[in-house]
Structures are given as structure tokens and as C-alpha cells.
Amino acid sequence: MEGPHPGPAPPSPPAPAVAATLQDVARLAGVSAKTVARALNGEPNVRDATRERVARAAAALRFRPNRLARELRQGARTGAVGLVIGGLENPFYSHLAAGVERALRAEDLELVIASTDDDPERERAVVQTMLERRVRALLVVPVAEDHRYLEGERSAGTPLVFVDRPPTGLAADVVLWDNRTGVRQAVDALVAAGHRRIAVIADRIANFTARERLAAFREAARAHGLGLEPRLLVVDVHDVPAARATALRLLAAPEPPTAFFGLNNRITVGVVAALLTTGGAQAVVGFDDFDLAEALGTTVVANDPAAMGGRAGRLALARLAAGPGLPEQVLLPATLVRRGSGERGPAAAAPSRAAAALA
Amino acid sequence: MEGPHPGPAPPSPPAPAVAATLQDVARLAGVSAKTVARALNGEPNVRDATRERVARAAAALRFRPNRLARELRQGARTGAVGLVIGGLENPFYSHLAAGVERALRAEDLELVIASTDDDPERERAVVQTMLERRVRALLVVPVAEDHRYLEGERSAGTPLVFVDRPPTGLAADVVLWDNRTGVRQAVDALVAAGHRRIAVIADRIANFTARERLAAFREAARAHGLGLEPRLLVVDVHDVPAARATALRLLAAPEPPTAFFGLNNRITVGVVAALLTTGGAQAVVGFDDFDLAEALGTTVVANDPAAMGGRAGRLALARLAAGPGLPEQVLLPATLVRRGSGERGPAAAAPSRAAAALA
DNA sequence: CTGAAAGCGCTTACAG
DNA sequence: CTGAAAGCGCTTACAG
């Protein structure tokens, strides 16, 4: 923008072996440290000439302020927010993280991410490390079964937001899906389309999400007078290959299901993969959206992980700005959406287009 | 593990309004700060009785050491590594980040992530912030067109690793795909299957990756004596909907392509979506793997972003341990893989199974 | 085995 | 408009 575009690389000033400090700049500019701080931080009460001299000295030394030092002085809190998730391989979590990151940009806060791999021990370890780093706020998709270990932190005022699943034994902010409504709509649609033998596949049942969605399914099924065949309820299915294998097994058994309900995106993708392979004409409904849902005509409960992350991030920022208050529970919509061109009947009933074609 | 499992929540000790410091612990334990540090950090030369007294005092005060202070004293560098990527919504980047995170665990380093949205200005801004935070090492998927702004940092010894694309105007470590081999294999397979009218869709052409892959395609096409129809080479296609729209447009034109080559995962998914919608029988080959590639029988150049992230992370750790050396260029394999059951002929030639069925 | 003093690189709270 | 002193919460480098 300013200055001529450099032709051949200008002879770079001899790089200091070690980073220059504000004191170095002060010495070179012939002023005090305080004046350097004023000049560089855009504070008032600096003569233009002084300001310029400082700027030149800083540039010559390639001065880069040390945020650790600044933040230590300003209250021993870092300018980063911590996010603890299951793992970035799962698009649910990565989209969630993307939403959080975007929310933090508004306040120029950084994002520290750690994965738990759904291991409660790791959750405690990474949370501990983040708290030692004094993150400004902490967002957690919890896996531990007891969060009383965070009570001290909560009462100390660190904004603590739980995401996707509530904490146990701790009153804190939490952002959740309206799982019950999503599940009920899915079951309603399947039943309306005539399905009675619905296979339900869930993730690790130790987690709140799987339990709540499964409970909601049981309730909805009961309401519709469906018998619950235990063999059609499979839990602890955590990744795409496992879900695919589960679906294949169910399809190969006598009296296979006429429909599948995948309780998260990894599971639904696995089920779809199985149906594409076998050419089965079973209906599929999935919780969470996924890449090819629309093209494959798969009906999904279309929650939006990025929106959830954004909501959680903004909640943390609000706490930061306004101080703690009564813990809040935010319920985000998760409603059934028919993906695809819509030229066919009720999605839940219609076999996915590709699967039908393959039959 | 130790102590009885708590029944009703034990009366929690009155939480301190503000975090306890090491000095507070020292006062309560009746020892000096140095002794507290020794006891809590597991250093030798502390009597067992003292160690225990300190531990009790720390527990009573819920003492949590402040890493900012520790790290400031220990050289003003944080225990985190910075990762700058395009955006977490893209599975390529999120898998890359997952690989980096896993590599860092070995050294108990944390991970700070920032997205550029492929904006050079943002790259500079987030890199600047990370350097001010004094990250131990910096991993960057670059978008800027000039990286001389990092020369000072490089010569100061901060491990700097570029990922997926090389830096410009700066000698630094870089981890890349063997794009040429991957592209050549893809074109070879398509030509061997009889394709002459191959549509190629690329991401933002300002980026190295798109340029290199497109150049490799041109070269391979020339080697096979294929004419290059400009209308079949589409660039600056950045997301799934755009890729889908592009494919639909090409299919609707006179003399549509008989095959598509998607130069990254977002594009390939969009092309597959288009073919699933239209029922087209065109062949598809994609750069980068994607979720349903196997089930859909799509042939892909199967690179592994998590492996790339892991390699880049380990390279940074090695620099950290051994100090700088000559910049290294790591070329990771990216080779054609036939996804799917393999019961059909050369993948590249065969229309994807679902697409065929839909025809 | 233990402690007093100094310092990491900034900002705060004053004083002029 | 400018600066000297103290301090954030730890660890380093000594001394005993």
C-alpha cells in the first residue's frame, strides 16, 4: 500500500539473534519504555515526532510485542478461548469448531483446540492444561461423567460453556439440540410412510447425546404403538466402517428392517454406504446433515454444528462482557428436512434415490 | 482412585474469589515460594513431610499454576504451536489439523488454530498474532503471495513449516503432495479407459495447489495427445455447490465431457452430487479422498491429510529439538486408488456405480 | 534440604 | 507530553 513495491529483496537489516524487547526499542529511540508503549499502542499524549521515532526504532529492530508479558501484567489471563471436542476428524466437531472460531473473531480472541477422543481422562487432562494457560473462556463438549472438578473454576468466574451435552453435577451454561423434537419428527415421518421395522443405530451410549436420542426414539415408537425389537437397536457404533458393518449385518438377518435411523452423521454415512453397496431399497433418516445427503435424497434432521459453535462462542463472549449470571440453557432447533429434489413422496418412506436405482 | 467415592457433594471449601498464586500456597504451607515450586514440580531435595504439607496447602487453595508466568520466565515462549489453515469447514483442513494435534500430543504441546478463508491479508494478521503470542512453532497452509515478511522470524529460529503449498521468497521447511504423480496416474487411467473429453475443475487458481495440479494435467494430456478444450477447464471453483453447478453446466452443453477430474475433495463431491442428480454415466476421478468414495465406486487420488499434518507436526518438533538446519522439502505420496468393490473394470473408465444405475 | 533476591517483558499507577 | 518505580506469577541463579 505504502512505499514502492520491492524489486529485488531489499538488503534485510541484520536480524537480531534474539527477539527485541520494548526496552530495546526505548533505548534505540531514546525514550522511556512507557513512551514506547504509548506510541505503539496508539495511546494519546505522544508528540508526533516521538511517535515516529519510536515507530522507526521498532521497525528497525523488528519489534514484536510479547503477548505473554502483556497478558500476565493485565490479569494473568491469555487472549485465547479453549475448545475441547471429541476429535477434528468428525465433521460434526470440525464444523462446530469453525463456528466457534468465527464467533471469536469479533473480539480478536484466539482459539486453542484439544481433542478428547471421548476419553474422560483426557478431558480432565486437556481442560486442566487449558485452565493453567488461563484461557479467557472454556467451551467443552463433555465426555466425563462428573464435572464437579470444574466447580472452583466456575465460581472463580471463568465463562464455562458446555456444548452438545450438559455437564454433570455442575450448574453451567449449556447449548443443546432439541433432540426430542428432531427424533419425534423423524419417527413420525417414518411411521407415516408405513414403516414398522425401524433399525436405530447409536454412538457410544455412555454419551448423553446417544442416550437422549435413543430415549426419544423409544418414547416416539411407543406413542406409535411400535414394538421395540432389541436386535434393531444397536449402540456403541462410533465410526463410518462400524456403522456400515452394522447395517450390512442387519440387512443380512431374517426380517431385515425396512428403514434405518442413524443417530449421528458418521452412522448415517455408514448406513448409506451399506445401502449403496447392497442396492437395498430401505429408507434412511439421519441425525446431522452430511455432504451428499441432498444428492442422495436422504432425509436428515438438519441441525447446524457451525451455528451451535457460534452460539456457544457468543454466549461465552457475553459472559466475558457482562460477568456471570444465572446459568443458561439454550436449545437449538433440530428439525427434519427432506433433502433432494422433492419430486418423490415423503422422504422417510421413499428409498433413497440411488439405493432404489441400484436395486 | 484414592479416597472414598464422594457421596453427596462434599461441602466444597469456600472458593477463592481470585485464583491462588504460588505465594499464597507458600504462605499457607509456611515455606518459601521456591520450596513450593520444588514440591509441586516434582524436583528433588524436598523432605517428604514438606512435600505433603505443600500438596495439602495447594489442594486447599485449589492452586493452579499460571503457565503464562512460567513461560514468560522460561524464555517468553508459549507451549503452543500455531496452525494457520484455510478453514475448518473443509475436511481437508480439519483432517490436517487432526493430524497435527495428534503429533503434538507426544510433546504435550497445545494447538492454536486460525483460519484465513484464503485471504492473504488475514494470513498476515493471524500469523502476526500467533508470533506475538510466541508460539513454539508455526505451521502454515499459505495463501499470501510473498512470505518475506517471515524472514526475520525464520532467522530468529522459530520452526516454520509450510504445508500443502510452498512459501514464496522464503527458504523454509515444506511438506507437499506429489501432485504430478497423482495427476499423471489419474489421466493415464482415464485415457486408458478411452476418455478424450475430460472436464477438469480446479479451486482458486491463485493457489499453488490448483496451479500445479492443472499444469500437471496439461502436461499429461499433451503427452497423451489430447486436445485441451478451454471450455472443459474450469477454475476458481471453491465449494461443493459451485462445483455441482459447474458440472451441471458442462453436462448441459453440447458435446458434454465423458469424464470429470475434480482437483480437490470439495469439487469432487460437487461433481458426484451433480451426477447423482442427473443420473449421468460420466466417469469421475477426484483428488483427495471423501466419505462415500468407496460406496459410490469413485476412483480417487488418495492422499491422507491427517498424515500430512502429522508429518508437518513432527518436522516442527524435530526442529525444536535439534535446532534449525537446511530447509527440508518433504514430498508425500498421492496415488490413484480404486475405491469400491473392484468387481468392475478400470475405475476411471467405469461410470460410478450409482450414477450408472441412475441412468 | 531450604530460602532471599532478581528478573522474564510488559502495563499500572503515579508523579511531574 | 514524558518517565521512574513497582508488580503480574512464576523460575533462575545463588547462597546457606
TrEMBL record, chains A, B:
Residues 20-74 form the HTH lacI-type domain. Gene3D superfamilies: 3.40.50.2300, lambda repressor-like DNA-binding domains. InterPro entries: HTH_LacI (IPR000843), LacI/GalR-like_sensor (IPR046335), Lambda_DNA-bd_dom_sf (IPR010982), Peripla_BP_I (IPR028082). SMART domains: HTH_LACI. Pfam families: LacI, Peripla_BP_3. Keywords: DNA-binding, Transcription, Transcription regulation. It comes from the Bacteria. This is LacI family transcriptional regulator. One of its GO terms (molecular function) is transcription cis-regulatory region binding. It comes from Vallicoccus soli.
